[in-house]
Amino acid sequence: MEQEISINSKDEYFSDLVNRYGFSYAQGENTATLIPPKELGSGYIKAVQASGDIDIGIIDLFLARPIISYYDNYSNTCEVTYCFSGHIFYSETGITKANLNKNEMGIYALPYSRGMTMIPSGKRVCVVSVESKKPFHDRLPYTEKCTQYDDTSVKKLLHQLVQPKKANAKIHNYFSQIIENNIGRELKNTYLDSLGKVLLSDLWQENIILPLTGGKRTVYSGFERNALLEAKEILCDHYSSPPTIPELAKMVALNEHKLKSGFRDMYGKSIYEYVRSLRMKNASHLLENVDLSISEIAGMVGYVNTSHFARAFRNEYGLNPSDFRLGV
After folding, report:
1. Is residue 209 part of a domain?
2. pLDDT surpasses 50 at 161
3. Residue 1's pLDDT band (boundaries 50, 70, 90)?
4. Is residue 1 classed as helix, strand or coil in its secondary structure?
5. How far apart are CA 155 and CA 132, in angstroms?
6. How far apart are CA 157 and CA 208, in angstroms?
7. Are 109 and 48 contained in the same domain?
8. Which of 56, 78, 240, 245 sits at a 20 to 30 Å CA gap from 306?
9. Is residue 328 pLDDT above 60, yes or no?
């Protein structure tokens, strides 16, 4: 009987496959590939680091005996897995009969999870996963609420998302493009990065933001969602001196109305509110540096007038910056 090993990261999973099951491991520039030994089966497992924001995982195996992995305190951001053929068995604490079958997907956004997965033998299993890495994940709305995991409605929602669900044609096509694209090597990672971000943004909007806010469902094209995501990233990078709305609209090739309404629909805040929250969040980190004065911090996050900065900070945190620094 094989020894039971609990893993809590992707690296430990790969190590488990190599050490316990005899997979060979090859590391490329942005890709790791694992091949099973002949006596175990055929196919491959591939992990692609598309960018600092997106990881892609592909399992395409035909096994002579199943592979079982136990995980405990496994750290998650948001991972979406889609099954093209065969099926994968898994159990998750609080979830029963959560098996992923053909044309089904699971959304895993629990901050930590515990359970078991099994890739069965005797049939081809092909699944594709898209995972948000922390820099991108932290920019999605309501990730802090999901990570804190102290709200009953949030807990219930995240557990519901683990349950397999049929994917619509749009989601199926996103995943198909990931494994069937013929993009050249020079652009492949950029292409996968963009696809992954659009896919996760679509699913996050539909399955996290709308249920938590009770918002209405508005249809946006893939181009529009990508443009709104790009707008958010521009604001994150330039929050202390952001472009005007007309300038931002030109930068992402959307009209101003679509930019403003779409941004609020997708992220739950107006552009102005979002920039202000970014400024205040960064200001709260800067206040930990006692060598910086309040006026210096105000200037660093984009405020010329210190009193305007202090008012905005009070509105955000309920404290003056000086009191926040002192932990009052």
Report:
1. no
2. yes
3. very low
4. coil
5. 20
6. 8
7. yes
8. 245
9. no
Asked whether residue 166 falls in the same domain as residue 305, the answer is no
pTM confidence score: 0.69
Crossing angle of helices 271-286 and 256-267, in 10° steps, is 60
Q: Does 43 share its domain with 143?
A: yes
* Shared domain check, 308 and 225: no
**How many whole angstroms separate alpha carbon 131 and alpha carbon 188?**
17
CATH number of the CATH domain containing 122: 2.60.120.10
The tens digit of pLDDT for each residue in 113-145 reads 888 889 999 999 999 999 999 888 988 888 888
Q: Is 169 domain-assigned?
A: yes
Which pair of tokens denotes residue 185?
Answer: 């090597």
Tokens read off for 203: 């699913």
- In a domain, residue 71? The reply is yes
Q: Would you list the DSSP string of 259-317?
A: HHHHHHHHHSS-HHHHHHHHHHHHHHHHTT-TTS-HHHHHHHTT-S-HHHHHHHHHHHH
Q: Give the neighbor-by-neighbor strand order of the sheet with 6-7.
A: 6-7, 67-75, 112-119, 89-92
Q: Which residues form the domain of 225?
A: 218-268
Most confident of 11-20, 33-42, 132-141, 277-286: 33-42
Domain count, the chain: 3
In a domain, 121, yes or no: yes
